[in-house]
Inverse folding.
C-alpha cells in the first residue's frame, strides 16, 4: 500500500539469479518509499555497529514484488516487510484481521516456501487510518470509529484511489461500521488529503497510520475498535541461510524488535519528508536515542 512520499532516487533492479547470498557483506534492502528507506538505513547502521563490519545497502529497490524477488534471488539478505502485504500480495491469501494469526501464517509459509524467516515485529502497524480534525474529535467526543458512526449528520470522506478500490479499504470500513456519508468519497492524490481535511473540504480522510503529518497536525486518528482493517505489522524478513551463516546477526536484528511505535515512525517519516533531513542522519539519531552514544 502507498505509505509515504517516494524518495527521489534511482530505482535499483535485480535479476542476476546466479548471485550468491554468501558474499563478504550483508546486504540490506528496502522498498521505494520513505518509511522503508528509513527502516533499511536504521537496520544497516545497527548491524554495522553490532557486527563491526560494512553493510551493503540496496535501498529504494521498488515495490513489494521487486523487493521480495531480490530476497529470493539473493540480491539482498533482508528487508522490512508488512504482514498484511505478505499475506495478500505474496501468499495470495484473503485478508485476515487477526494480527497474531497473520504473523503465524506468514512466518510458516515464508519459511516453508522461500526459506525466509520473519523475526519478531518492530512495533509498527501501518494499516489504514481514518483521520478527523482535532476540533471535530473534541467537540463530538470521538475516540474510535464506532463513535464516528453515531454522528447523525454524517461525514464527507476524502480517499486515495487505492483505498476506494481495495477490498480491505473502503469496502471493509463500510461493512464494519456503517458510517453515514454525505456523498460519494472524494478521490484525490494522497499528498492532498491532509490539505483537504485542514481546509474543511472533507470531514474525514483515509490515511496511513505512520504518515509523517500525523505527528505535526491537530488531527485525531480514530481507533479501529471493530478491526475493519487487516494488520500491517512491520518485521524484518531475512534469508534463513544467511542468518545461520552469520554469527550474531540474528541477535543483533532481534534487538530492534519492539523498539518502534507508530508515533516514532511518524516522526521519522516527517523528519525526512517534511524537514528534508538526510536519511542516514535521521537513522543515526534514532539509534543513539535507543542505545546512547554509539
Amino acid at each position: 500500500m502507498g505509505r509515504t512520499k517516494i524518495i527521489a532516487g534511482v530505482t535499483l533492479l535485480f535479476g542476476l539469479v546466479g548471485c550468491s547470498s554468501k558474499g563478504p557483506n550483508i546486504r540490506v534492502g528496502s522498498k521505494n518509499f520513505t518509511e522503508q528507506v528509513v527502516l533499511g538505513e536504521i537496520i544497516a547502521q545497527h548491524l554495522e555497529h553490532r557486527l563491526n563490519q560494512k553493510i551493503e545497502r540496496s535501498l529504494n529497490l521498488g515495490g513489494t514484488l521487486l523487493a521480495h524477488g531480490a530476497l529470493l534471488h539473493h540480491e539482498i539478505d533482508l528487508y522490512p516487510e508488512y504482514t498484511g502485504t505478505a499475506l495478500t500480495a505474496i501468499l495470495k491469501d484473503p485478508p485476515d484481521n487477526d494480527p497474531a494469526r497473520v504473523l503465524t501464517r506468514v512466518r510458516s509459509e515464508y519459511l516453508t516456501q522461500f526459506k525466509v524467516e520473519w523475526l519478531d515485529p518492530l512495533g509498527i502497524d501501518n494499516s489504514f487510518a481514518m483521520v478527523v480534525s482535532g476540533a471535530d474529535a473534541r467537540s463530538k467526543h470521538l475516540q474510535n470509529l464506532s463513535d464516528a458512526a453515531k454522528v447523525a449528520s454524517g461525514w464527507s470522506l476524502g480517499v486515495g484511489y487505492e483505498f476506494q478500490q481495495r477490498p480491505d479499504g473502503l469496502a471493509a470500513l463500510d461493512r464494519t461500521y456503517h458510517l453515514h456519508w454525505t456523498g460519494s468519497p472524494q478521490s484525490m492524490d494522497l499528498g492532498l488529503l491532509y490539505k483537504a481535511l485542514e481546509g474543511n473540504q472533507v470531514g474525514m480522510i483515509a490515511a496511513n497510520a505512520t504518515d509523517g503529518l500525523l505527528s505535526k497536525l491537530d488531527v485525531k486518528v480514530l481507533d479501529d475498535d471493530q478491526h475493519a482493517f487487516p494488520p500491517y505489522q512491520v518485521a524484518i524478513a531475512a534469508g534463513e541461510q544467511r542468518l545461520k551463516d552469520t554469527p550474531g546477526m540474528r541477535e543483533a536484528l532481534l534487538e530492534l524488535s519492539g523498539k518502534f511505535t507508530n508515533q516514532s515512525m511518524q516522526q521519522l517519516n516527517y523528519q525526512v519528508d517534511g524537514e528534508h533531513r538526510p536519511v542516514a542522519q535521521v537513522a543515526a539519531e534514532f539509534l543513539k536515542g535507543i542505545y546512547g552514544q554509539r
